[in-house]
Amino acid sequence: MSISGIKGMNDILPGAVEAWQHLEHEARRIFGHFGYREIRVPVAEKTELFCRSIGETTDIVEKEMYTFSDKGGTSMTLRPEGTAPVMRAFIQHKLYAQDTVNKLFYIGPMFRHERPQKGRYRQFHQIGAEVIGVDDPKIDAQLLAMLSHYFESLQVPDVALQINSLGCAECRPVYRQVLTDYLEQRLDQMCSDCQRRYTTNPLRALDCKVPGCQEATSAAPAMLDSLCTSCDEHFGQLRDYLDLLAVDFTVNPRMVRGLDYYTKTTFEMVTGSLGSQNAVAAGGRYDRLISDLGGPDLPGIGFAMGLERLALLLEGQDIAAPRPDLFIATLGKDTESAGFKLLTDLQRRGIQAEMEYSGKSLKAQLRRADKLQARYVVILGEDELQKDMVQLRDMDQSSQTEVPLSGFAENFSMSHTEG
Ligand code: ATP
Ligand code: MG
Question: 198 with 179: CB under 8 angstroms?
Answer without folding.
Answer: no
